[in-house]
Amino acid sequence: MDEGIFFLLQPHSQDNVSYGVKINQINNVNNLFHRKYISLFPLDYNASNQQFRIDILIEVKIDRINNAMAIQGLKKSADGPNENAICHGEEQRRKRYQKNNEYARARSNIAKETDALFYLVECPLTEEFHHHHHHHQIQDLQQEVKMISNEEDDIIGDRLCQNYNVESNDNNCTSDINNYILNDEPGEQKNDFYIDNFTDSATSDEDSNEATTEDPRIHEFTNITTTSYCTDLLNLLREAGVSKLHSKRLIALIQSVLPTPNNLPSTMDDLLSFMNIDDLFFKQSFCLVCKQYLEYKQRVCFTCKCFDEKAIADVYNVNVKHVLKTLLKRLSPIIEKYKKNIYDDIDEEETKDIPFGKLYKELLNKYASENIISLILHLDGVSLTRSSNLKMWLFSGSFVELPPSFRYRRYNMILLSIWVAYAEPQSHVWLQSIISQIQLIKMQAITISEVLSYKLKIFAITGDCPALKLVLKFTSHVGYYCCWLCYIRGRHVGGKRQYEFKLPMIMRDRDAYEEESRLAEQKQINVYGHLGLSVLSSVLDIPLPDAIIIDYLHVTLLGHAKALILNIFHSFAPNERLEVDNWFKMQIFPHYFNRKIKPISKFGFVKATEVKNILFYAALPVFQLYLSIEQLSHLALFICFTRLLHGQSIVGLETNKIAKELFEHFYRDHNEYYEGLQNLVLHLHVHFVYMYNNHGALTNIGCFGQEDLIGYIGSNHHGTRYYGELITYYYNIDFALHMKPTAATTKKIEKLDPVNDTHDEYKYLHVELCDCEQIHQCFRLYRRFIINDRIFHSLIYKKRGKSNSYFIQYSFDQRHYQFGSIQCFISLQSTEKSYALINVHRVQQKYSDYFKSTKYYDLLKKPLDNYFLFWKNALVKKQLY
Question: How far apart are CA 613 and CA 596, in angstroms?
C-alpha cells in the first residue's frame, strides 16, 4: 500500500473489520483539514500476524452543524494484538461517554499543550456502505458512526501523536486532495467498499446549503448568534476606546465564564479573523537622509549608515482599489440618487453645491459618455504627541457625487495614505506609490454590479496653506509670489510679508502654470513661486491652478477672522474685555449648535465652529457697544461678504457682484483699522468669488469633515510606541464595522412628546381647522416636531434648557420673511395635517439703519437687512403655519 495518513473507524467487536481513511500526497499536513472529501476503506491485515497497536489519537471534527465526531488513527506495528487494542478502545470510550461534560472542558487544555490539533471541516457522510462479504460488519460500522456523530463533543483520544507511518493495501481506494476529487475505486479484494452520493457542499441541495451557511449560536444555551455577538463586542471595544492589550484581557475574561464548548473566538486575532477584518494597509519605511526606502521591517539604513530612529519615516498606503470598491458598493444608492439631481440641475438644498459649479459641469461635458465618480483630495497633518515632534500626515479623499450631508462623514471618505515621522513629508517620495495606484484605477472601470460601474476622476485638491505648499511644490506663505492663483509679489514690511490691495490682478492660467512648473523642475529654481512639478499633476482631471480649492476653514475662520477678533478684543480696556466675554457666555443658540461661543480670553484652544458662531451671529451686536461706528461698519463688510458666499443665496444672481464689492472695500481700507494683518490669508479672500463660481458655496468646500477624520484617526493609539501600527490596526476595525449599507434619509415630519391633558384654550383651533365633531380623537397637541431631520421645540416643552430652538424664521411667499416663537404643534387626525401655532414678533427696526452715517451704508444695506434685525419682544399675534 502507498504511504499516507490513516484514520480508523473503530467497530464494536473485535471480530469486525476496522475501516480507515487514507489521504495521499500531503505536502502540508495543515491543508488536510480544509478538504471536503475523504475515502473510507477496510484495513487489510495479515490474519497470521494480527498485530495492531493504537499509538496515535487524532481528533477530527465532522459536524452535522456543531456535533463532533471523534476518529482514531492507527499505525501498523508489531507490538500487541489488534483485538486487545479494540477492547481497550471500547472500554475507554464507555468511560468517556459517562464523563462527557468534564472532558469537554479538559479538551481545550489538551489542545493548548499539543503542537498540532487537527480539525476536519464539515463533511457529509452517507449512510450507505457497499460491502460484499462482511455485511454484518458494515451494519455495525453504520451504527457506530451514527452513535458517535450524535454525541456532541465526544473525544476518543487522549493525546496527539505526530508519527504517521501506516502500511496499507494497494487495492484500497484513494483520495486525491490536490485536485479536490475523490477517486473511489473498488479493488479486487472482496472487503473493499466505497461511499455513494458523496458531494461537495457547494453542489448539495438547498437544505444542505442552509445548514452549512447558518450562523452558529455563541453557545447551545442561547439564541444569540456568534456574528451578532462579536459585532456588538467589537463596537463596544471601539466606542469605549479600549486598548489592544485590555481587549485581549476582556475577551479572555468573557471566555472564562462561558459554557464549554462555545463559539466565541478565544483571542483578539481570532475575533478579527472571524469577522473577516482585513489589513487594508501596506507599510514601507523611508530614510529621510538618503531618500531611500528600507527593506521590510528594517529600522536602520545601511545605505547612509544612519542609526537614528527619528530619521526613519513610516508610510502606510491602503489598497485603493479594494477600499474604493467597498465604499462605492455601500454608497452607490445615495450617489445614483444625487446624480439624477445633478444631471437635471436640481439643487434641492439651494446651497450651490460643488456639482452645480462651473468646473464640475465642465468635467461632466468632457466625460459625457462615462459614469464618473470624482474625488476631492485632501492633505493635512497633526501632532501625535505633546512631548515630541512626531507628526502624522493624512492623505484622503471625499466623493463629489455624495450630497453635502453625507460627503464629509467620517467613514464616507476614503483614506489613501498615512505618513508618520519626525519631519515634514516629501510629497514626491511619499505620494508616488499611491498616485501610481490611482493612475491604474483610472485606466479601468470600477465594477459595482452587473449593471453599475464607475470611472474614477480626480476633481480637486484642498488643504491648509502648509499642506498645499507641500503637495503643489510651491513657495511657502511667507515668500514672494506665494499665491497659487495670481502673480501678487508681496512686500516685506516690519518683519512680515504683506500683500496689499492692488488692482487689476494678473491671474495664473492653466498653460502658464504648467509651463512654469516644468521650468522650475528642470532648472531647480523658483519660477514665480513654483519649485517644481506637483506629484498630483498626472492624475488631476481639472488642470492646476483651477483644481485648487481654498479652504475657508483655515483661511477665514482660523485665519483672518480669528486675527480680527483678537485684535479688536485686545484694543478694549480690561473691564470691557470681561464684559465682552460675559456677553458671549450668555448668548443662546438652538440645541443643535454643538459648539457654543467660547470667551475670547480663551481663544488659544478655539475651534473653527466657535469662531464661525462669533463671526456670523454675535460679533456685530456685541462689538457695537464698544467700537466706533466706522470700524464696526468696516467689520460688517467682512462679515456680510463671508455670509453671502457661505450658504443659501439671499440676493439671487447678485451674490457674486455684491460680495466682490464688499471685500474690495474691506481690503482697500484695511490699513486704516488694523496693522500688520495684510498677510496671505487676507489676500486669498480676493479669490473667494472665483471659488464660488467654480466650486460652489463655502459651506460645501470647507475641510470640517477632513479635520474631523484626521483628528479621530490621530487619537487612535495607546502607549508611547508603535503609533502607526496602532492607528492602522484600529482603522481596519472601524472601517469594517461601518460598512453597513447607508440609506438616504427622506424628508418627513415626525411627532414627538404628545400632550395627554386636554387644553381648553386650544380647542377653538379645532373649530377653525376641522369640520368634524370628534375633537378628542382628531385634535392632538405636541411639544416637539422633527421637520427635515431637525428637531424644533415649542414653548410648552419645558426641558429645552437654555436653547432657543422654538424661535424661527418663516415665509409664505419665499420673499418676505417673518419671525416668531412656536407656542405648540397641532395635528389633525381627520385631515392628516400638522400645524405650528406661532407667536408672531413684529420687526421694530432694520439693522442697516444703525449704519446710515457710515460710508459703507449703501453696500451694507441689503445684506444686513437679511441677516440682522431688531424685533419687539412683545407678542403681536398668534398665527398658524
Answer: 7
Distance CA 754, CA 829 (A): 13
Nearest to 549 by CA among 662, 646, 660, 688: 688
- The angle formed by the CA atoms of residues 678, 681 and 686, to the nearest 5 degrees, is 85
Q: Which residue do the cell numbers 471480530 mark?
A: 15
CA dist 100 and 112 (Å) reads 19
Q: Which triple of cell numbers denotes residue 554?
A: 483655515
Amino acid at 101: N
Q: Where are the alpha helices (DSSP H) in 158-243?
A: 206-213, 226-239
C-beta neighbour count of 595 within 10 angstroms: 14
**Owner of C-alpha cell 459648539:** 595
Q: What is the pTM of this model?
A: 0.73
Q: 571 and 631 share a domain? A: yes
Grid coordinates representing 380?
Answer: 493635512
Over the stretch 443-502, which tens digit does the pLDDT of each residue have?
999 999 999 999 999 999 999 999 999 999 999 988 899 999 999 999 988 888 999 998
Q: Is residue 499 part of a domain?
A: no
Looking at the domain assignment, is residue 216 inside a domain? no
The verdict on residue 17 lying in a domain is yes
The answer on 296 and 150 residing in a single domain is no
Residue 408 sits in the same domain as residue 428: yes
Helix (H) or strand (E) holding 102, with range, is helix 100-113
* Tens digit of each residue's pLDDT (9 = 90 or more) over 536-550: 999 999 999 999 999
Three cell numbers at 333? 444608492
Whether a cis peptide bond, with omega within 30° of 0, leads into 11 is: no
Bridge-based pairing of strands 877-880 and 833-841 is antiparallel
Q: What whole-number distance in Å separates Cα of residue 518 and Cα of residue 534?
A: 9
- Extract the C-alpha cell encoding 803: 436653547
Q: Which domain holds residue 769?
A: 749-841
Q: Which residues contact 246 (CB under 8 A, 6 or more apart)?
A: none
215, burial (CB in 10 Å: exposed 0-12, middle 13-18, buried 19+): exposed
Q: How far apart are CA 45 and CA 28, in angstroms?
A: 28
Q: Pinpoint the alpha helices (H) of 344-431.
A: 358-366, 404-407, 427-430
